[in-house]
Specification:
Elements: E1 3-7, E2 10-13, E3 18-25, E4 33-39, E5 46-51, E6 58-60, E7 68-73, E8 78-83, E9 92-99, E10 112-113, E11 117-122
Parallel strand pairs: 2-11
Antiparallel strand pairs: 1-3, 3-8, 4-5, 4-9, 5-6, 7-8, 9-10, 9-11
Length: 123
């Protein structure tokens, strides 16, 4: 069983930066594809970024346009999402997710989820 806890959310100004953290317990996260999703009010949960097991590859949503970077710290069993050049459209609850398989952009293929952390970008 994988337990995930997100942190680092908060209020950031337009054009600012924020780093989200996802702390894992129960299993070695390096064995899993890890991803970040987000859900804005009234919208469906959408894929943001993923990193493959053993950092095999990274994938990003087109809407991110190289503003965000996903990384992992294997010794700490953590995954990060560095958000730069934040835009009001980035306002959402951000979720960390894990799956024992290849990267996917659909939330339904992920097996484990955190509780989410709120990110609000002021204009």
């Amino acid at each position: 069983q994988v337990h995930l806890v997100e942190s680092g959310g908060g209020l950031v100004q337009y054009g600012g930066s924020l780093r989200l953290s996802c702390t894992g317990s129960g299993r070695d996260l390096s064995l899993y594809t890890m991803a970040w999703f987000r859900q804005a009010p009234g919208k469906e949960r959408e894929f943001v970024a993923s990193i493959g097991a053993y950092d095999s590859h990274r994938k990003y949503a087109d809407s991110i346009q190289a503003r965000f970077t996903i990384t992992r710290d294997t010794p700490k069993n953590m995954v990060y999402l560095q958000m730069n050049s934040a835009e009001p459209e980035d306002t959402a609850v951000y979720y960390c997710a894990a799956r024992a398989g290849d990267s996917g952009v659909y939330s339904s293929v992920y097996d484990y989820w955190g509780q989410g952390t709120q990110v609000t970008v002021s204009s």
